[in-house]
Amino acid sequence: xxxxxRDSKVQTWTSGGTIGYKNANKATPMAAELAAxxxxxxxxxxxxxxxxxxxxxxxxxxxxxxQSLAANGLTVSIYVMQLES
Length: 85
Known about the structure:
about 80 residues; alpha+beta; two-stranded antiparallel ribbon; two-stranded parallel ribbon; about 25% strand; globular
């Protein structure tokens, strides 16, 4: 997961691997939730209060991540699903 500003400059990022999960465990719903929680914490620390979520493709764990962003203090203002062609 990547947090960018309005100019698309990367502010911070996180993933299942950066929070301590290894191998196949990085693709679990729990890893997605914890990575989103960490990203929300970093975003709030950087002064972000609302986010626009853009997802590429389908995936069962993406919904968990978006819910975790909202549950950890960020306002999810727009939710965009981009299907790859």
